[in-house]
């Protein structure tokens, strides 16, 4: 008899406070391969902080983060990247002095451990792979543009391509579709869902748009003032009276 | 397109062109200069290339250059050297030896000077001396005091006018040894000159007076003395006498704090260079009294040659000559005398031959000075005396001329210090 | 015991003086982020103007009608107005230029003031009058020790000024705005406050403090032309050790340095040369933001990157141009005279030196105020090999970059852990420590008399051959740097500069990449240094001194820190300009300063930046 494989991401009892206020207060969650887990909650609920705790941008004060069973708590972001975590940021972060393609090439080169080359131009390396990734997120035509001048929605797409360049097992997406039109949102989330199904990627994402959440998440976890309020299938969460009271009230009605 | 942008662009183009010219000019200039030099021919002027730290040490070097030009004009007014005018091309090394070397290259190769001269800082002097050695040119070092210049790093091409650190220390030790003091303290700027002065003073005094001991030594950074703390540290050791090597602004600050804190009360002070007007005058009515110093009593030195020099200098520049003035004047006099000796020939070997053992008169009006063949050091001396206040300024009193020839080590010692190749 | 108390009091007096200068500097920096090199010049002007106002308006040396204190205060106000003029005429136009660019402008001001002061007040040191009522020394109550009155006055003045500034900052609207702007410049702009007036006001305040500090030195120090540079470095050390923008920190740092100086003199009389830099290095290693400075509010992950231009492969026309220039450079030595050849070699050296610094400043986004350390270490490595081991030139040239690179690894390990001006000042501290080793270790390095006789091997002794050699090595090094900038390593550096959180999230090890970049740049600077040593035939501590570091900075900024090849043009322009001016006129400092100021005003993006803009404008015109 074999034990079921551990979830790709398993966080237990995460705590982090800022100046006495507990932004994240004992959050536990798990995401399995091929699964999309949505983290929702009102502004300031602690979603982004959770992402930072998992991605290594912040150190938890208590709690553990395991990736496929391996403890990665408190590791610095580069090591967490190498362990197989890709992420996008709520406030987009790209390399402004590079073109869109070069941004992706940078991530590919890093993943391939080819950062210390001194001679061959970077822009000629891993170009096809970068273009394939850009095509996937629908950014192929913009490959030559400076990333600093992109529209917000395009930046989000670029970030997704960058995050995917590391061939992650776990994808963290902090508001991946903010700034996009409705049709674009659906397309992007459909792409992510397909990736998850096809390659067993585990996805943790936050989103304020409830159509996106309930249309694509396998499970939903509701955060309020740093604590888990409810967790379950979209239907169960939608039906949960506490959630309705605290948060969904007007929206889902 | 608006005119502002246009103007900007043409400005940009012009400035870009200016930059290009700035970078390219030194590369293009030599051809022209060569042509000029060739046209000058043998009867043209005799050119001296003079390199000094004009912007770094203006207080000494402005009077120096003034007197230099005065001496040169006098030579030329008397018909020059066998009919050839004396000309000087001045360069500012800003206190950087590497720049001095670059200027030397320019003076020799572009300006086609016949010999090099100058230098105030010891390291500039050494750099130029090495350049002279490498390029086989005569270098008449006017001011740099380091002993290395003519001894441990001496070479065939370098001569030095001023009495060296060793010589001036020896002059002062002669007086210091007569003092009853046994407990001595030293304050010297933290660089080669200060360190060698301190070393020689200790060595020579210990030889003359085996009973003395040195109870404190302070080496403040040059130009940045923390005078209060330094004075206190010296006072704390309670010496009977102090040997001071600081000069310029360090000296001023040291004296002020020392006066305020009574450091000099009931203590003997022996001090290098402090009698030079460059350093004594800025002290104004706070100039110390009774220090034993080397220097230049410009106002009281009374002999025909010096009086004429002082008069001419006053008339032309409307100020009193400084020690730097004498150094500049004497350097030109020495070079002119040497050139008369070669018969106006400007070959380096001929000039070196003429420099060795050359005797020339100094603006001090004291005995003739000789460039010793043995080590290329001149026997120019310095005045040793005491400081005093007169009309609210520092002056030297009870002074005597210490002839440099008497303050040099025995010949065999000198020969040992000097490299074989330098003879 | 008495001696210790007196020494402690001396330390306090120096600390007060230091604090006065540093307070103005830290206030200016806190608000404007300008590294104001001219602060020392303002201090010097305060002393000179104070001297004139106090002595000249009566004659005979006695204090004039203003009296001593009136003269001092008026001098401080006058310097304040000069500060305002500098801000309004010059710096105001540069707030949007790349960081550190205003440093270039203030350096131009330093040069201008040096020449003007010489012209106005003459070369001789001036002696200010003693302060009325504060002559001589007094017996200290209880202790029974004698101590100068004026020093006691200074000891009291430091805390008083600190208190007044504290009141100004806490109790007035102006002060409130200054504090707000120190913490968050953008926010004040958003509040609808007139930033220009605020900056001008801050400059006035800072300059008044500098002028006051200078004028207050009249009774204790001579007024001389070296005051500016003597004070500026130390003032910066105090500001950085205290924590940028922090007045309390500056006060603490001044105390620390003043006291360490006073007691250091008792224990190690030769230590004054490096003490402040040792202190700064230790403090910064232990506390990366100084004693009282806080880490800047953690940059939120994904803050928008600086508006750095995209680096693209050079357009064909530019590459052709570069090839033509290189071909010309190769051909040039065959027609040049001896001196021109040596200048040519110097230029080649400076190009490589500037390019190596640019790797750190441009793609690396790290400033270095101490790049001369590696230049000098390379030069000394070559010279020591030649002097002590009679090694051939090839060995010197091969080992110099290695030595400098190792020094880069050692120093860089600490520097890359810091950011911004703190990191830059740590590089300065290390450079000064290296300098003091070269200066004080006389048995090995020859001290300030340097090492002579470092001439090239016979085959390269011909100036023409040496010029080609210098060109080949400089071009080789430059090519290596250019390739590195376009290679993954350069991309990784830029990635770290553009967005640290993004770079971390895709696995770029920040410290390692920066550290290696540091060593790489140091190694190439060392190569430049070795070439320079053989070209001049000698090495001196001046090769590692601050002015040489400043030269490199100026070349990079002048050429354009946000361009790839700018430093080449910056090096040629700066070296060419100074070479020409020094030969042409005694007033080369004035003219060089004016030239720098003009270049800064007309080309705020540097020469190559302006050329690029011109090129892009032409391209888009052509398309239209
Ligand atoms: N670096 C920080 N310093 C201080 N407080 C912080 C910091 N980061 C987050 N907080 C606080 O922690 C709480 C949670 O913030 P977080 O950004 O995690 O919320 P969020 O759920 O992502 O909100 P949003 O939907 O607006 O993105 C908030 O009260 C926020 O103000
Ligand atoms: Mg958030």
UniProtKB/TrEMBL annotation, chain A:
<keyword id="KW-0067">ATP-binding</keyword>
<dbReference type="Pfam" id="PF00005">
    <property type="entry name" value="ABC_tran"/>
</dbReference>
<keyword id="KW-0547">Nucleotide-binding</keyword>
<keyword id="KW-0813">Transport</keyword>
<dbReference type="GO" id="GO:0005524">
    <property type="term" value="F:ATP binding"/>
</dbReference>
<dbReference type="InterPro" id="IPR003593">
    <property type="entry name" value="AAA+_ATPase"/>
</dbReference>
<dbReference type="InterPro" id="IPR032823">
    <property type="entry name" value="BCA_ABC_TP_C"/>
</dbReference>
<dbReference type="InterPro" id="IPR051120">
    <property type="entry name" value="ABC_AA/LPS_Transport"/>
</dbReference>
<dbReference type="InterPro" id="IPR003439">
    <property type="entry name" value="ABC_transporter-like_ATP-bd"/>
</dbReference>
<dbReference type="Pfam" id="PF12399">
    <property type="entry name" value="BCA_ABC_TP_C"/>
</dbReference>
<dbReference type="InterPro" id="IPR027417">
    <property type="entry name" value="P-loop_NTPase"/>
</dbReference>
<feature type="domain" description="ABC transporter">
    <location>
        <begin position="9"/>
        <end position="250"/>
    </location>
</feature>
<protein>
    <submittedName>
        <fullName>ABC transporter ATP-binding protein</fullName>
    </submittedName>
</protein>
<dbReference type="InterPro" id="IPR017871">
    <property type="entry name" value="ABC_transporter-like_CS"/>
</dbReference>
From TrEMBL, chain B:
<feature type="signal peptide">
    <location>
        <begin position="1"/>
        <end position="33"/>
    </location>
</feature>
<keyword id="KW-0732">Signal</keyword>
<dbReference type="Pfam" id="PF13458">
    <property type="entry name" value="Peripla_BP_6"/>
</dbReference>
<protein>
    <submittedName>
        <fullName>ABC transporter substrate-binding protein</fullName>
    </submittedName>
</protein>
<dbReference type="InterPro" id="IPR006311">
    <property type="entry name" value="TAT_signal"/>
</dbReference>
<keyword id="KW-0029">Amino-acid transport</keyword>
<feature type="domain" description="Leucine-binding protein">
    <location>
        <begin position="45"/>
        <end position="384"/>
    </location>
</feature>
<dbReference type="InterPro" id="IPR028082">
    <property type="entry name" value="Peripla_BP_I"/>
</dbReference>
<comment type="similarity">
    <text>Belongs to the leucine-binding protein family.</text>
</comment>
<dbReference type="InterPro" id="IPR051010">
    <property type="entry name" value="BCAA_transport"/>
</dbReference>
<keyword id="KW-0813">Transport</keyword>
<dbReference type="InterPro" id="IPR028081">
    <property type="entry name" value="Leu-bd"/>
</dbReference>
Automatic annotation (TrEMBL), chain C:
<feature type="transmembrane region" description="Helical">
    <location>
        <begin position="263"/>
        <end position="286"/>
    </location>
</feature>
<feature type="transmembrane region" description="Helical">
    <location>
        <begin position="230"/>
        <end position="256"/>
    </location>
</feature>
<feature type="transmembrane region" description="Helical">
    <location>
        <begin position="197"/>
        <end position="218"/>
    </location>
</feature>
<feature type="transmembrane region" description="Helical">
    <location>
        <begin position="552"/>
        <end position="577"/>
    </location>
</feature>
<dbReference type="InterPro" id="IPR052157">
    <property type="entry name" value="BCAA_transport_permease"/>
</dbReference>
<feature type="transmembrane region" description="Helical">
    <location>
        <begin position="396"/>
        <end position="414"/>
    </location>
</feature>
<keyword id="KW-1133">Transmembrane helix</keyword>
<feature type="transmembrane region" description="Helical">
    <location>
        <begin position="506"/>
        <end position="532"/>
    </location>
</feature>
<keyword id="KW-1003">Cell membrane</keyword>
<feature type="transmembrane region" description="Helical">
    <location>
        <begin position="150"/>
        <end position="169"/>
    </location>
</feature>
<keyword id="KW-0813">Transport</keyword>
<feature type="transmembrane region" description="Helical">
    <location>
        <begin position="103"/>
        <end position="122"/>
    </location>
</feature>
<keyword id="KW-0812">Transmembrane</keyword>
<keyword id="KW-0472">Membrane</keyword>
<feature type="transmembrane region" description="Helical">
    <location>
        <begin position="42"/>
        <end position="62"/>
    </location>
</feature>
